Amino acid sequence: MQNEPGADPTAPAGVIFGFFKTFLCIFMLFAAFMVYSSVVSPLMSHLKSSDWIPTPCRIELSQVFIPNGVNARRWRKVDIQYAYTFKGQSYHSKRYDLFASAINRYGGANNTPEEIVSRFPIGLTTTCYVDPKNPQEAVLNREIPGSMVWGLIPLVFFLVPLGMLAFIRRMQRRLTTGPSR
Fold this sequence. Notes:
- The chain has helices spanning 11-48, 113-119, 153-177, and strands at residues 53-65, 77-86, 89-93, 125-130, 138-139.
- The protein has a 5-stranded antiparallel sheet.
- The chain folds into 2 domains: 12-43 and 154-177; 53-141.
- The chain is of the alpha+beta class and 181 residues long.
- The radius of gyration is 26 Å and the shape is elongated.
- Helix 1 (11-48) runs antiparallel to helix 3.
C-alpha cells in the first residue's frame, strides 16, 4: 500500500517519539525532585547552619526508636530530646541532625543509632547548635553523613533519560531531513 500524495510518512513515528519524550520528561522531573530532596536541600540546610550558636544543653531522653510493624534493623531512628536556654528563654528540641530521614542514614563505624544514643545518655550536658534567627531550631550534630552519597543515585535516573531525549531528537531530525552523509 502506498502513501497518499502529501501524507507524512513519519507521522506515526512522531506520535511515538512525542509520547516517549513526555514519559522521559516526567521521569526526569521525579528524579530531579528526589535529588533535590535527598541531597540539595540538606546541603543547603548544612550551609545555613554554619552560623548557628553552640549552646549548652541537657539530654532528657535518649533511645532508639523502631516504628511498629517495620524491619527493625533497617528503620531504626535516633530519638533524642534535650533542653537548652538561649537568650534567657528555655527551649526543647528533638533533632539530632539536619537530615530528617527515618532510615538508618547515620553511616560510619561509630554511627549506628545505638552507638549515637550511647554517646548521649540521659542527664548528659553537651553542646547543641541553635539557630539565632529561630531559637526553636537546634541540632546536636551539624555534620554531613557519609551515607548521603546514596542520595545521588536518582541523578542516574535524570541523566540517562536526558541522553535518551538527545538521541530521540537526533533520530527525529534524521527522519524529517533524511540521513546525513
